[in-house]
Amino acid sequence: MPDTTLMTIPGQVDPVPTSRDITPRSDGRVDLLGLPRPRIRALLEEAGLDPKQAKLRAKQLFHWLYHRGVTEFDAMTDMAKTLRPWLAERFVIGRPEVVEAQHSSDGTRKWLLKTSDGHEFEMVFIPDDDRGTLCVSSQIGCTLNCTFCHTGTMRLVRNLTPGEIVGQVMLARDSLGEWPKASASPRAGGDLGQPGTTPTETPAFAGDHDHDEPGEYRADGRLLTNIVMMGMGEPLYNFDNVRDALQLVMDGEGLALSKRRITLSTSGVVPMMARCGEEIGVNLAVSLHAVTKEVRDEIVPINRKYGIEELLQACADYPSANNARRITFEYVMLKDKNDSDADAHELVRLLRQYDLPAKVNLIPFNPWSGSIYECSTPERIRSFSGIVFDAGISAPVRTPRGRDIDAACGQLKTSAEKKSRAQRDREAAENETAAA
Ligand code: SAH
Ligand code: SF4
Asked: Sheet of 132-135: strands edge to edge?
């Protein structure tokens, strides 16, 4: 792939393909989406603005990009009229391309998206009474092969860039129509393009921009209130890009989503968990799914590298884990595999042993064509949940959402990659035989 290079991931994991921080476009322009403010500023300087101008313009651009969701430079009414075409000649503000948008009967929405180099990935929006959660992908495919997960049957195509990750949030806000409107009473130097006002040009802007207050996602006003890194891929195997993207999402002058409303789910990449807490600081969810080495080795194979004890110790050490911000342990309910009363008692024992501020999320297994498991019976799930609950640990059963459009947990897999590795190998062998 011309746009990927090998990235070394800290810890004993194999390098995976990742995109360069700026993917060159065929027209030579640079996509600003996903770039941190200092990078935007440096690009403006490289393009010829003096340092002071570059600093100011970078700040304005950042605001237009992440606070207002603007994709055209022409809409940036506080930029000098001559500056707008100058920017448009050199830069673009991209979005992932939407290949298909689906709506489930339960309100869940799924988008099939495409990167500029032609790879498909998915994001899902799950509306609830008091919140709206966007399930964001971090990779195209996954290097790990959890046996119950559809994404796990895909090979890893590549890591998503910060722009492609934050781009999912931007696109969701575009689709939900949730960008803030301009302030009704712009303050000095702070015109935001309200109809009937005169765009304020460069000189009036010297010093600072003075836009409306940074947006804040609120359950009462907006649909998109929460983000979970639970789409395709293992976010801690794409640590830098996920961190950079989430920092843009949390930036108070941009999307301004609180870290308390963001959850990152990992299958247990132990060497990256401390950095996740320190450098990102979001809520942690851990895909535990089994309480014995034998079963976890089988269904979450990363367990052979980082075992249950090591994983739970990393959870106990996770910065900011406390009773107010408990760690979520995800547990997929697989019939006759991990769902006995003894498993539930062992789960309680382990969580107590490590003194973990925990809640357990029981996920009924979502089947996909070719999967080898069945979901546990409702009675079994109730019994399991009851044991954990009686031990004083909350253990809600997650209602599957969007099953009719294959949007539920573990069902994500792009149509472009429907074949299993084994199937591809078989076909390649057959082709070779046919050619010989
Ligand atoms: N790679 C990360 C995040 C993506 S998966 C991780 O593994 O944590 C999001 C959650 O869905 C994980 O807990 C995952 O184990 C679970 N999951 C995967 N396949 C599933 C399936 N078929 N049914 C129910 N949950 C599934
Ligand atoms: Fe990858 Fe998570 Fe699926 Fe495992 S459950 S294969 S880590 S996406």
From this structure: 97-103, 109-114, 120-127, 132-135, 226-229, 262-266, 283-287, 327-333, 358-364
Q: Nearest C-alpha to atom 8 of ligand 2 is from which residue?
A: 233
Q: How many CB atoms lie within 10 A of CB 44?
A: 23
Half-sphere exposure of 310 (CA within 13 A, CB side): 14
Q: What is the pLDDT of residues 161-197, one digit of tens each?
A: 999 999 999 999 999 888 876 543 333 333 323 333 3
Ligand at minimal distance from the CA of 411 is: 1
Q: Which residue has the tokens 């591809």?
A: 424
Tell which CATH architecture fits domain 28-94.
Answer: Orthogonal Bundle (1.10)
Q: List the catalytic residues.
A: 122, 409
297 CA distance to ligand 2 centroid (A)? 14
Using one digit for the tens of pLDDT, what is the confidence trace for 46-88? 999 999 999 999 999 999 999 999 999 999 999 999 999 999 9
| pLDDT tens for each residue of 123-149 | 999 999 889 999 999 999 999 999 999
Question: From CA 81, how far away is CA 103, in angstroms rounded?
Answer: 41
Distance between CA atoms of 252 and 247, rounded to whole angstroms?
Answer: 10
Q: Whose CA is nearest to atom 3 of ligand 1?
A: 230
**Cα dihedral 34→38→44→46 (10° resolution):** -110
Model confidence over 390-434: pLDDT tens digits? 999 999 999 888 888 888 777 777 654 544 455 555 555 655 555
Q: How far is CA 50 from CA 44, 55, 214, 277, in A?
A: 8, 9, 27, 38
Which ligand 2 atom sits closest to the C-alpha of 234?
Answer: 7
Whole-angstrom Cα distance, residue 335 to residue 373?
7
Nearest residue by C-alpha to atom 5 in ligand 1:
230
Listed by start position, the domains of the chain span 28-94, 97-177+222-435
Q: Which residues contact 54 (CB under 8 A, 6 or more apart)?
A: 41, 42, 44, 45
> What is the rounded CA–CA span in Å between residue 426 and residue 414?
20
62 Cα to the center of ligand 1, angstroms: 34
Q: Is 135 in the pocket of ligand 2 (CB under 6 A)?
A: no
Q: Is the pLDDT of residue 344 over 90?
A: yes
Query: Across the chain, what does the average pLDDT equal?
Result: 84
| Residue at 239: amino acid letter | F
Domain 97-177+222-435 has what CATH class? alpha beta
Report the sign of the C-alpha dihedral through residues 350, 227, 250, 261, in that order: negative
Quote the pTM value: 0.84
